[in-house]
């Protein structure tokens, strides 16, 4: 059987390990999903430079050695892909939990001295080319300057290994609490601006349509919505009768404070045991259950964050997760 499974949408540049493999708190690198929109660029570590410009007082050009000489920081953070930009309401649940090491973005920008009128940080990857018939001059994302107090970093390491080419090496942006799409790989340029970037992946794709006060508005795909998945048992598992342990992970931009499990297809719910959050990592939950009889069951799980926000049933990327298992 293949280690990778299809998501039902056409994602040619995607490798996705099955959720049932994600049993470790820190996801081993071989089980971290890999995603790109265009061809993968090749970057020479010795000649790599990061240009920082736009609304700053001091433009900077940093080498890898310059970055390595700055204070280093490490953070464990959940890494979740928002899904296919052309199918933003389809849940794909591509997720991992990774230890990133590098230099805080705020540390680098402190040296560049951000001008007071800067409101967004634009980040440029070295990759470009055709994306479904659209010519993309560079992969560009943006994030609000107001997020700079957080843990955004220029990462050089993933799980203590130098960042591989496929995960964006030598240096990528990582924005804990934001969807993976915002963590620009193969980072070559940062620009401070007073507006959002007009790029295809900033203000065309990756903006959800939401209705607010009766009006349809666009909401950038930035902060990660609450989400929970089961990794044990696996989808379609065949279990022997007796006590079962349901195990999974829950995460979101805000810490998760409650996870509920249903063993009857959503008719009733009960609270699972939930670990507290460390850094921006995902949180383990566990639920003991003795199936009342032989047969097929639909198991579901749903998370609620510290602001009380939960997960919708359908039609969104963080729709409630459910699996079917058989006790025989
Ligand atoms: N330069 C660049 N950065 C990128 C992308 C890309 O196509 N090009 N894809 C983004 C998306 S959609 C995701 S989910 C993550 C995937 O990171 P990974 O492959 O290291 O897991 O990278 C993001 N950063
Ligand atoms: Mo993604």
Give a quick summary of the entry.
This protein is mainly β. 5% of the residues lie in helices and 39% in strands.
Going across the major beta sheet, what is the strand order?
4-3-14-7-10
Assigned CATH class of the largest domain: Alpha Beta
Q: Roughly how many Å apart are the termini?
A: 23 Å
Helix percentage range: under 10%
Overall body shape: elongated
Largest sheet: 5 strands, mixed
- Tally of individual domains: 2
Strand content bin = 35-45%
Assembly state of the chains shown = single chain
Q: Indicate the structural class.
A: mainly beta
Could you describe the 3D structure shown?
It contains three helices and 25 strands. With 328 residues, it is mainly beta. It has two domains: 219 residues, Sulfite Oxidase, Chain A, domain 2; 101 residues, Immunoglobulin-like. The strands form seven sheets. Strands 4-3-14-7-10 form a five-stranded mixed sheet. Strands 5, 6, 11, 12 and 13 form a five-stranded antiparallel sheet that branches. Strand 15 and strand 16 form a beta hairpin. The longest helix is centred in the N-terminal third of the chain and has 8 residues. The two termini are 23 Å apart. The site of molybdenum atom (MO) has 5 residues, from loops.
């Amino acid at each position: 059987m293949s280690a990778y499974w299809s998501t039902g949408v056409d994602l040619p540049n995607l490798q996705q390990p099955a959720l049932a493999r994600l049993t470790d708190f820190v996801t081993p690198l071989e089980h971290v999903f890999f995603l790109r929109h265009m061809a993968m660029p090749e970057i020479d570590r010795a000649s790599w430079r990061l240009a920082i410009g736009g609304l700053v007082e001091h433009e900077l050009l940093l080498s890898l050695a310059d970055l390595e000489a700055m204070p280093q920081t490490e953070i464990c953070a959940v890494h979740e892909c928002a899904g296919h930009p052309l199918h933003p309401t389809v849940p794909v649940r591509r997720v991992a939990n990774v230890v990133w090491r590098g230099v805080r973005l705020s540390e680098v920008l402190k040296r560049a001295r951000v001008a007071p009128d800067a409101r967004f940080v634009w980040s440029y990857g070295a990759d470009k080319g055709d994306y479904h018939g659209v010519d993309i001059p560079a992969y560009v994302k943006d994030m609000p300057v107001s997020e700079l107090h957080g843990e955004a970093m220029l990462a050089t390491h993933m799980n203590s290994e130098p960042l591989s080419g496929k995960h964006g090496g030598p240096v990528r942006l990582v924005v804990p609490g934001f969807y993976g799409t915002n963590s620009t790989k193969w980072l070559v340029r940062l620009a401070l601006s007073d507006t959002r970037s007009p790029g295809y992946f900033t203000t065309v794709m990756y903006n959800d349509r939401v209705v607010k006060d009766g009006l349809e508005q666009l909401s950038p795909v930035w902060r990660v919505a609450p989400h929970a998945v089961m990794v044990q048992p696996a989808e379609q598992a065949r279990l022997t009768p007796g006590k079962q342990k349901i195990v999974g992970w829950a995460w979101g931009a805000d810490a998760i404070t409650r996870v509920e499990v249903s063993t009857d297809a959503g008719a009733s719910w009960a609270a699972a045991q939930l670990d507290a959050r460390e850094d921006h990592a995902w949180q383990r939950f566990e639920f003991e259950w003795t199936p009342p009889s032989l047969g097929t069951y639909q198991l579901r799980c749903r998370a609620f964050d510290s602001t009380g926000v939960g997960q919708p049933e359908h039609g969104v990327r963080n729709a409630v997760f459910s699996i079917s298992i058989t006790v025989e």
